Amino acid sequence: MSAWYEVENIAEVATPALLLYPARIRENLQHMVARAGEVSRLRPHVKTHKLPQIVQMKRDLGIDKFKTATLVETLMVAQAGGRDILWAYQPVGPNIVKFVELVQQFPAVRLATLLDDLAIGEQLTAAAKHAGVTVSVYLDLNVGMNRSGIVPGAGAVQLYRQLAALPNLQLVGLHAYDGHVRAADMAQRREQWQVVVDQTLEMVQSLVRSGVPKPRIVAGGSSTSWLWLEVPEVEVGAGTMALWDFGQTQTCPESDMIHAAVLAARVISRPQPDLLCLDLGHKAVAAEMPQPRVHWFGLEDAQPVLQSEEHLVLRTARATAFPVGHICYGLPYHICPTTALYDEVWRIENARAIGRWPVVARGRQLPVQVHWSESDTKRQKS
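Above: the chain's sequence. Below: its structure in token form.
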């Protein structure tokens, strides 16, 4: 019996390749909705897949709120029918005007962005006023990751009130991303997460005490979303859950999400008796993490010894069992930046590669056109 990830017609697939399994994606999404209880609690991030077809799968389940990392992803979701989109990034430079132009282009879509700087808020309000639109914004909180945002406290309350007073801006609420909370031990992760929760809820209370209407909260990622669901009304931004990668398996060993994205590579050389060279270099898998960047099925003992742009060399005592041309399947450690490396992904249905989806939102420059139809996605259900 073949393993779930094996593809019968893999000979037709040039490698390296990224394979997606829609049936497994739907299972993950259905599980997300079931765990959330109310679909309104979900605001899944699309940076994991960057695909309108998966946006449509989410919409089919009633999900209409989304989170994005780039303007191109934002445009893709708007074109694919998303009704409420948070671009979770502070706009700077030309992107201020570009974002306002998207607000103009999609008047029926609620588009929002993040702010943590008053000067940028003033530039955004000037652009919005010039365009004759109102822009929704969230205050970005630094809850411990130290990547962006303002630390909760009196300064953050003051900034929130200052931004709320600017014309053509609508302060919607708070954004709190806790990507640093990744302890594999659930008790330890909960302890780390509780610090974030306390900071965020105290910020809400401080704003209410200052006379500000109670803000909405968008918080968490795949590692903490189930925890955030314990806090009433919070919208959770679980993105990786749609595809699930090996990194999340290590961070969340208790999760029952299933893998729905697999890398395929071929052995292209055996330079030494104990070495295999695969056609999976830096350009085919996210390289921001230390090795191993791929968990290879059937090659769990192999150790990476070299990776360059187009090559990955593994050491294994079983190298002779893998002839040149042999197909290897593996799970990427981090799927989100891996997806961005591919112009297209293969759709695997019933153990066969049956078509390719262009990764339309992998770029950064507007405009992008989404060449797809809802019927393309719906046909997969038959």
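The chain has two domains: 1-21+260-360, 22-244.
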